[in-house]
Amino acid sequence: MSPNxxxxxxxxxRLRRRRAAALGPAxxxxxxxxxxxxxxxxxxxxxxERAVDLGTxxxxxxxxxxxxxxxxxxxxxDAAASRLDNKFSRVAADEEALPFADGSLDLVVxxxxxxxxxxxxxxxxxxxxxxKPDGLLLAALIGGDTLIELREAFADAEMDVEGGLSPRVxxxxxxxxxxALLQRADFALPVxxxxxxxxRYATPFALMQDLRRMGATNALIERRRAPLKRATLMRMAExxxxxxxxxxxxxxxxxxxxxxxxxxxxxxxxKPLKPGSAKRRLADALGTKEIPAGxxxxx
Length: 299
Description:
- By secondary structure, the chain is α/β, with parallel strands linked by helices.
- It is built from nine helices and seven strands.
- It has a domain at 10-146 and 171-203 and 255-286: Vaccinia Virus protein VP39 (Rossmann fold, 3-Layer(aba) Sandwich), CATH 3.40.50.150.
- A seven-stranded mixed β-sheet has the order 3-2-1-4-5-7-6, sandwiched between helices.
- It starts with 9 loop residues before the first helix and ends in a 13-residue tail after the last helix.
């Protein structure tokens, strides 16, 4: 079996996040996701004694889920744990190598972090094993439609100026793929849904500055090492304004947030009925006549 491909430079990603913290981070996406975490947990009719926040930058999500009043303790897991808020317990670990015993956690949350994991199926499998029976995973990831405008503008600019393409924006997974990964990791009652957020900027350069302040600039292993040509950058901005500007001249940027939830299997959970176990025919419920397979309805 071939090893999993290495897509992201995890060390570079940590350096980019430190730079973002020094610049003054742009947190509008994380703040919105944190509010959504609190709302989604409030709809869950149970409490969680031991929770882990896996890889989430900063502390907005931890504060939000603790305000929901359903969590006993929460441990922040981050490869650079020294930069986390001292109000929370911390563990220095990578999302790809969890240090928790099987069946030891009631809840795992993660916000805007798991999209940069090289082996996401493996990470989900580790989370599943670490959860107690009837434990919950709730995660928000950047989805495949994120920055489609910037991706298109850069691709066409590079073709115009340099006659070829290089990877500039990460290839994030789409909703269907992520939902399938939950099933593959043996989560019960898996759910995947998405939220698209449109953000407007004065210029494409303002968007790129926000990406720097999110620690979300290019960390692909296959990124081009040579500096970006000024002519390519200016052509990108021109294409972006031509195609994605509103009437007032401001440009749009799409961010897709994919939400994943799944439970560690437990005997108390609702299970699908076995084939042939229904006690009432669908035709009776619809008030119509059942037609055997292969027969045509009579006019």
